Structure formats: C-alpha cells, structure tokens
UniProtKB/TrEMBL annotation:
<dbReference type="InterPro" id="IPR011990">
    <property type="entry name" value="TPR-like_helical_dom_sf"/>
</dbReference>
<keyword id="KW-0449">Lipoprotein</keyword>
<dbReference type="Pfam" id="PF12771">
    <property type="entry name" value="SusD-like_2"/>
</dbReference>
<protein>
    <submittedName>
        <fullName>SusD/RagB family nutrient-binding outer membrane lipoprotein</fullName>
    </submittedName>
</protein>
<dbReference type="InterPro" id="IPR041662">
    <property type="entry name" value="SusD-like_2"/>
</dbReference>
Amino acid sequence: MNLSKYISFALIGGALAFTSCERSLTEVNENPNQPEEVEPQVVLPAVIRDAVNVHTDGAYLVGNNAAQLTAKTLRVEVDIYNWGSWPNTWEGLYNTLRNAERLEQLAKEEGNANQEAIAIIMQSYIYATLTNAYGNIPYTEAIDGENGNFFPGYESQSEIYTGANGLLSRLEYAGTIIDESQTVNGDILFEGNMTMWKKLSNALRVRLIMTASNQLNDAASRLQNIVADGPLFTIGENAALSYLSSSPNQYPLYNMKQGDIDAVNLGSQLDTVFNQYNDPRLSAVAANPVAGGKPNGSDAEVGSISGSNLSDRYFYQESPQNAKGVIMTHAEQELLLAEAANKGLISAATEETHYRAGIESTFDFYNVDFDADSNYSDFSDFYTTSGIDLGLLTLPEDRLDKIREQLWFSTFFAGHEPYFLVRRFLFEENGNWDEFSFLSPPAGNVNNDELPNRFLYPGSEQSLNGENFEAAVPPGGDNINNSMWLVE
C-alpha cells in the first residue's frame, strides 16, 4: 500500500494552510470542471475492471506458473521458487480497494443495497487474495487515510476469514441485502443481474470455506447451508469479465511484448494430463497441441507457447474482445463441492454429480467443438470412455486425486487461485509430492522441493509502516516458508 502518497498529501496540505493568506484550502481545491459528487455507477466499472486486471496479470505471471499449469522459458524465478521481492501484488490490489471502499460508502449514502453488496463482494475477493498470499495484512484499517490513519495495523488471517467483520461474514451479509428484482447501472460483469451477484457471493464462500477447511471446525455446516439455500452457479454461468477491443476495457495483456507472451509455455504437467485422456481441451489451451509442454524450472525452451489461453480460442491479441478475466467459474465451484463430498463435508452421494458437472462446465467455458477438436462424439462419450470417469475408481483417495486434478485445471487463469490450491493440496499431504498423479517438484528449484507458503511483504511496508510491519511478521522473520493460519 502506497502510504507515502497519503503522507505527501498531508504535508502538502499543511504547507498550503500556512502559505495561503487570501484563499482557504477548500477554495484552492475546488475544480469547476469536475463534479463535486460521484455516483456509484460511475465508480463501479473501475472497481470491477481494475480488480480483474490485477488478478489476470497475477494469473499469467505467478498463479499458473507456480501451480505448474504453465511454465516459463525466461526469468524462471517463480517456477524454481526463487521468490524475493517479487512476486508482489500488494500495491496493485490495495490500490483497487480504494475505489471499492468508496463505492461502498457512496452506496450506503444513497441507500442502494445492491451497489453496497457488489462493493462488499469485490472487496472480499480482493482481500482474500491478499491474505492468502501474505498472511496477516491490514484489513479494517487498510483504506483509512481520509481519517488520518496512515499507519494501518495488521489483522490475523484467522480473524480476516472468520471474524464478525471477516470475509465469510461479509460475503454472507452481501447476499442477504441483494434485491434480485432490481438492477444496477455500471455493472460490466453481469450487466446488472443481481441474481448472478448473489450466486458469486455464495460461490466465493464455497471457495473460501474449502481454502480454510483444514482450520474451520464448522466447514461442513457452512457448506451444507450454502448448498441447501443457494443460489449457486449453474452450467454456463461464470464470473468472468468479457474484455472489449478498445481501452479502457481491454485485455490487460494485450499490449505485452510478443517475447513476453512467448515466455510462458504450456506446462508439461498439464500436457501430460490432457494427453492421458486424449482430451480435446488441450486444443483450447495450447497454440500447438502436438508440441508438448515445458517442464517447470527447465532452461530448455521447448514445447508449445500457451498460445490459445491467450489466443484465437479464448484470449490473446488477435481477438481481445473474446478475452475473459476470470474471477470464478461454475467448474471450480462444482469441483470444490465434489472434493467436499469426497471428504464428507456435504453428502457423499453428490460426489460424482458435482465432479462430472465441473468437468462438463470446462468444456462449455472453452467452447470445445467435439466435431472439430476430438475423436469423441460428445461430452458423454468423452466422460465414459476416456478414463476420466470417477465411477471407475473405488478407493476414496484415488477419487480424491482425480477430483483434485480436474479442480486444478478449473482454476486456470483465475488469478493466484491455482497457486493457493496447490499449496493447500500439498499441506494436506504433508508436502509429499508423490501423493499426486499430476504434480511433481519442479526441476532446479532452490527451496528443497518445498512450494513457498507465502509472498514477502513489500519493502515499503517495513520503511513506511514499520511498527505494524514488525508486529505482523511471523516468528523467524519475513520469508517465503513462514507458516500462516491456512497452512499450520
């Protein structure tokens, strides 16, 4: 968080107060060319766009690579766990929170419950990424410069998740205040459809509960209530921002240099999984499906660029209007519920139903054409004959591995979520890579085969918010292997 910005403004304001003899500070700050009041619908598009843009960049640079969905050919620091001051999403995400919290304030002033709910959902989405990445973070005091708090205290990750004003409570509250009969202006994600916002609030709760399922004593009851009460996404319903071909709602990677685009390849782990099933989804995420994938950490520049996850089918420069910024998909929701069923957190009888629905949803999301892209006649043919069918397995642990595999792919390009997911998987198996059929420690990693637990706090926090920073740093100092509530 750029605290220096607030401090500079305070110093400038003090200087003006002493030097201005004829005009007040209020008069100096008046701008006749700008409105005094800003309406929520003016702020809302920026809140959505900025948050999704930061997460899309994070997916491309960190999330997909750390989770071995893709692999770097240049600057392989993320792949080999050589994490220092980078990766860093701190400033980008906290900057997005300024408008998100302003949106909530404006909505409350107008008595617009739907705008307030959207603001809370977007804030929760952003704060979840921050705490999942760093652990303890500024939360309730984070965006409080207007009230003179330039040195926000940090709050514990457990409190951020489960406190009275925590993420799970806030998302639940947002769902309760939504009026589905009313629309909102400025909604570039769901075009004002408040039922979809309610579904997103519940889907994000599913994600967070499963992320913290090893720490929550009431994970089962929380999930069961959501499943019973809903609503949740159905197939074809996703929280994914459709970008346009022109600024400002343009795909954030559109202007990236071609060399940087080519520096991210399809990961060999994902390529192996897809080839195992002769899976037509390979054509949706590889520019050249027959070229193979690149091992994470390898110096060899081999394999297919991740082309069409940025290209003609889904993303990329030739068709930026087709690009999507993924917040959360129906596929991820369903596969999380399949995992929950496998673990007995919800009805075990629903395990394969959710699993199959999640996989089918990825086919829908990537618009897989069975006639053009595969030897299978349709999804049912693929599911029953490719070897992906969960019913072929009898042992719960084997079914769990299969569910995890498909859940892993479902988070492709969903911000940093692929990394958070793999971190949880490894934590649940005591760091034993051998428990997974689709993961292995990357070649040449410099962290003793251990996936880092967290990002390092930015140096600006130590210099500008030192006292609170020191109180927040885990025992042993600020390092990538520090534990946090989610993995302890």
